[in-house]
């Protein structure tokens, strides 16, 4: 499969690239700084560009079979990178006639808010309020598109080895609010092959 990954140098994006290349996909990573991908091996094409550059995003999407969006911000300041970047991706996909999109969001967004513990609600409402607003706008744009989309909402992301054992469902509750990024990547790549979650928004947790 020809797969474009946006946000490929973030912690989750790097794991997605690694696993996708291992599975034999032809991966195109759209990044601002290619340095973190220097040792990713064969099967990877790197396109350097800015997610706010609509023309550059559209060029990256030509000839792709599917797209994974793992955009994020590296600090807690107000940002619209998820919303604006995803809108540019959606528009570029339509121009390139690419229909399959998987977006990494977060547990607690949208209707999954009620699945959070009181502590995590307070955390989202204060420290992560800008991130939450951006994620909400991103999900709205994805659901309004005519694409074959899936939204994946991980619980607390961890840089630990994958387990291959996790729970996936709509608005499920987390036992410990932790999930390895490797398991999130595993779910996404499995879903690209199976297509069982099209037009669904699912939580992944341990």
Write the layout of secondary structure elements.
Elements: E1 2-6, H1 11-22, E2 26-31, E3 44-48, H2 54-61, E4 66-69, H3 81-96, E5 100-104, H4 118-125, H5 129-144, E6 148-154, E7 156-158, E8 167-169, E9 178-180, H6 181-194, E10 200-205
Parallel strand pairs: 1-2, 1-4, 2-3, 4-5, 5-6, 6-10, 7-9
Antiparallel strand pairs: 8-10
Q: What is the rounded distance between the termini?
A: 28 Å
Q: Could you describe the largest sheet, including whether it forms a barrel?
A: 8 strands, mixed
Which strand order spans the largest sheet, edge to edge or round the barrel? 3-2-1-4-5-6-10-8
CATH topology descriptor = Rossmann fold
Mean pLDDT: 90
Q: Estimate the helix proportion, in percent.
A: 25-40%
**Total number of domains:** 1
What is the strand content?
15-25%
Under CATH, the homologous superfamily reads NAD(P)-binding Rossmann-like Domain
CATH class: Alpha Beta
CA radius of gyration: 16 Å
Structural class: alpha/beta
Given as residue ranges, the uncertain stretches (5+ residues, pLDDT < 50) are none
Order of helices and strands: EHEEHEHEHHEEEEHE
Q: How many DSSP helices?
A: 6
3D shape: globular
CATH architecture: 3-Layer(aba) Sandwich
Number of strands: 10
Note down, in words, how this protein is organized.
With 206 residues, this protein is of the alpha/beta class. The protein has a single domain (2-205), classed as 3-Layer(aba) Sandwich (Rossmann fold). It is built from six helices and ten strands. It has helices at residues 11-22, 54-61, 81-96, 118-125, 129-144, 181-194, and strands at 2-6, 26-31, 44-48, 66-69, 100-104, 148-154, 156-158, 167-169, 178-180, 200-205. The strands form two sheets. Strands 3-2-1-4-5-6-10-8 form an eight-stranded mixed β-sheet, with helices on both faces. Strands 7-9 form a two-stranded parallel sheet. Helix 1 (11-22) crosses helix 6 (181-194). The chain is globular. The model has no long low-confidence stretch (mean pLDDT 90).
